[in-house]
Amino acid sequence: MKTRLPTPQRLPSGQYRCQVMVAGKRVSVVDADPDVCQAKAVAMRAGLIEQSETPKDRITLDAAISKYIEDRRAVLSPATIMGYRGIQKNRFRPLMKTRIRDIDKAALQKAISDDAKTCSAKTLKNAIGLVAAVLSDYKEINTRGLKYPQRVKKEHAYLDASQIVELITACQGNIAELPILLAVWLGLRRSEIMGLQWESIDFDGKKIKIEHALVPNEDGEYVEKSELKNASSRRVLSCPEYILAKLDSYQPDISKRSGRVFKMDPSVIYNNLKKISERSGIPFVGVHGLRHTNASVMLSLGIVDKIAMKRGGWATDNTMKSVYQHVFSSDRDTADDMINAYFESIVDDANKKFAHEITHANI
């Protein structure tokens, strides 16, 4: 049977590449002349010449990830870079020291199996996603069919109605009160709370624009993110008078209302929420758990998915929902009124409880 000649493929650089199998591994040959490229590939497959090692062949996965990050630093968010550095430092340690040319599908599967004892399926898939993207700059490798540990559904913590009353009662006057209200009432992410600017608050129109986020970079420093988590994250929310009044009291001097609203370290919110929760006897769900609580409130009130997604800034890959469905402004206003009425009733209960506790404390 006649052996098929490798076909030279023109690369974006203008050079040509042929790929052949040598000792069970796919090997690439590159040359400026397509005929020379093909001849070298045939000779290499026949064992007449050996594969020459280039700097690209010698690079390890660890070094390749660093190069991948640096080449794309201008278009990657600080949080994404921090995530990549975390994978580089903590995942697949033996594989990180391996040369790119020696990494194949079997090596990836072994790396997954080795880390499966301490990592979730999601964590491992995210790590392999980065590794595959990095490898694609050097070689072709098929990651389909890789086996991951069984996914365990994680139950996210959130507060029920009575616990929300306890939280709003207990957080009154605390330095983290406003961030807590923005998370549980309006469903803001922690990064959005920390990135909120005075210029984004319309006191007259009773609106808040979500258009900034503060995230940690690879050095652990908090920096403003140029883009939000997704396109849906950029949104305008109806801001209830209760929160507007709190914001007005937070900075009474209008001349100083510029830039970020909250200059505190994000850990201040976390630590105070934890203390408030422990003192009140309610579960500590974290700041993100308050966002889950907000989503649960909308579900309980029967807010339709499309409106809930718009309020929460959640994205969807469903074309029908993202392109063809539209939210009537009257429905959105009704949803805003329902959610504000719900929390205003809770605030009334919380204020009564707070006043009762103060009265008894003074007796």
Any descriptors?
about 375 residues, mainly alpha, DNA polymerase, domain 1, hpI Integrase, Chain A, 3 domains, three-stranded antiparallel β-sheet, DNA-binding, Integrase-like_cat_sf
Tally of alpha and pi helices: 16
- Give the biggest beta sheet: 3 strands, antiparallel
Any idea what the shape is?
elongated
Helix content: 40-55%
- Spatial strand order of the main sheet: 1-2-3
**Overall pLDDT, averaged?**
88
CATH topology of the largest domain: hpI Integrase, Chain A
Strand content: 5-15%
**Radius of gyration, CA atoms, in whole angstroms:** 28 Å
Helix/strand class: mainly alpha
Multimeric organization: single chain
Return the CATH class of the largest domain: Mainly Alpha
Run of helices and strands: EEEHHHHHHHHHHEEEEEHHHHHH
CATH-derived architecture of the largest domain: Orthogonal Bundle
| Count of the separate structural domains | 3
Distance between the termini: 101 Å
Number of strands: 8
Question: What would you give as the CATH superfamily of the largest domain?
Answer: Intergrase catalytic core
Low-confidence stretches: 319-326
Q: Could you provide a short overview of the structure?
A:
The longest helix is centred in the last third of the chain and has 34 residues.
Protein topology:
Elements: E1 9-10, E2 16-22, E3 25-31, H1 34-45, H2 55-58, H3 61-71, H4 78-90, H5 93-96, H6 105-115, H7 121-135, H8 161-170, H9 177-184, H10 190-195, E4 201-202, E5 207-210, E6 213-216, E7 222-225, E8 235-238, H11 241-250, H12 266-280, H13 286-300, H14 305-312, H15 319-324, H16 329-362
Antiparallel strand pairs: 1-2, 2-3, 4-5, 5-8, 6-7
Helix pairs in contact: 3-4, 3-7, 8-16
